[in-house]
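Example 9 (inverse folding). The structure is encoded as follows.
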């Protein structure tokens, strides 16, 4: 029984370490996405209304930028709240 518990304990430690590694990676990717989105918005704002007219004349393309944070918001908040509880 002690041997089984030891094995399970080691597996649990490995899973927790891997979870922490993945959480940090997800946080870095989220930061990179934020920076890229900010840069994209900045470039679009610098382009001015002339580029909007070109896009509208090109077949009615949608110029709105989707908010990528909406889909990631709940998962990143859950991950950070879980890590804080430990």
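The amino acid assigned to each position is listed next.
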């Amino acid at each position: 029984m002690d041997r089984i518990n030891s094995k399970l304990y080691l597996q649990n430690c490995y899973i927790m370490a891997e979870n922490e590694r993945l959480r940090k990676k997800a946080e870095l990717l989220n930061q990179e996405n934020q920076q890229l989105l900010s840069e994209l918005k900045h470039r679009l704002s610098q382009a001015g209304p002339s580029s909007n007219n070109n896009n509208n004349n090109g077949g009615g393309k949608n110029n709105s930028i989707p908010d990528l944070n909406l889909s990631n918001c709940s998962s990143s908040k859950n991950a950070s709240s879980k890590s804080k509880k430990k």
